[in-house]
Please model this.
Amino acid sequence: MKQRLLTGFIIAFCLVVLVVAVRWSPPASSSRNVSESIGVIRVEGTLMSGSGTGLGSNIASSVEIMEVLQTAQKRDDIKAVLIRIDSPGGTPVAAQEIGEEINKLKKVGKPVVASMGDVAASGAYWIAASCDEIYANPATTTGSIGVITEITNLKDLLDKLGIRTEVIKSGSYKDMGSSFRELTPQERQLLQGLIDELHGQFLQQVEKGRRGKMTLEEIRRIADGRVVSGTEARKLGLVDHLGNYYDALDGAARLAGITGEPAVVELNAVDPWSRLLSRFSLESLLNGAARMQIRF
Amino acid sequence: MQISEMVYGVLVQPVVTFRYLGQARPLGRTLGVWLLALTFSAVVSFSLIRGEMAALLPEVPAVQAPVMGNLFWLYGVGYLLLSLGWWLVVSALYGLLGELLGGVPNGTGVLTCLALAGLPGALGPALQLLSRAASVRFAEGPLLAGVFLWTAVLQVLALRESLQVDTGRAFVIWVAPFLVVGLMLLVGVLLLAALMFTVGLNL
Model:
């Protein structure tokens, strides 16, 4: 009798639990059930225009960042975006692409605020300058408005090793920037022209982003590649406020008209394993290696 | 012994039942009970994490529905395989330790008793689900602790009866794999911490 009772009870209990399991919906996570959120996008590492950075990479891919910016644009619950920047810069195209996407976000009425971490220099400052407001910590390293390319000349070393490179090319400039020979004066002039043009684009972007806060002349005076602290950047007008990540969140909420504590949605959170592995990534090891690359 | 008698015996008269099961070793019927309990547990525990999984997907029903369906099967099969692996490995380990500590060699008996001793474990996700559905999440902790304790006691009894050792030795056998896993985890965490400290010191 007891055995039957217990068996019946177990069966009934299991049925009840299964019905609850099928019918009960867990409460939606905070990112989905709130009507007013701030989307946080992290720009961490060297800016590059490639997609798919892979596990352990220390690259901020413009393709991935543009994708999350588009997500922020489409999601109705996201009323403002905070871009947390910790990057020494990168390629001009990556910065331009992200800057363009930020402009689109601003056009649909979603304010974008930049919060600078350890470093937000060069191309990363380009991104920050595209935002409505910029927050920096007093010890943040920023600025570095300039363009650079480095060519390592291995000719003497190769000569010592007895290695010669034969080049067959379709035009006189096709191997411009080669590590196997000196730059010719004409090539130097061409490259300088390219760098100057890109520098001009950089200045225009900063002038556009900081309009009303800095004049073009003021920007020109400091656009010589120098890096400055967050405090100095505030004095110069390169940033709007001194404050940390949470101050920037409050600023984004204020611009979006969100009252009370805003919900925060991490749009491209990096998992801790990737963060750890990025310290040992190939890109990190190759950073600064001999290869020609124009970068902000 | 019928399946219902086995379940009743394990839950109500565990000592006598494990003594019988350790000798009779009805592995086929045990496997049936074990599979039923595990399927129930997998379905219930999936419903607990369904929300978190859905939150990771785009908010498009046409995308969410098929992906969630696939995830359910993936989760179920993974749950089953991992549990099966754990059951076999732990049983083999307990059998070996039992023999080393003077118990009788009884691999199939350990496998049978251990599977049935884990039956209350299926209650864990069920109670978690009920407490969440009833919005009494604070009850989860004590309920899970109770289920763990019950399962642990049953497993020690299962080892004692199947290996024919005293309670003290059965407890030592039961706790040994946990100690080894704990020690390995501790060493792993310490190594990781040392590694992070070495690479993270910069200003």
Summary: Chain B has one domain: 3-200. Residues 61-100 of chain B form the longest helix (40 residues).
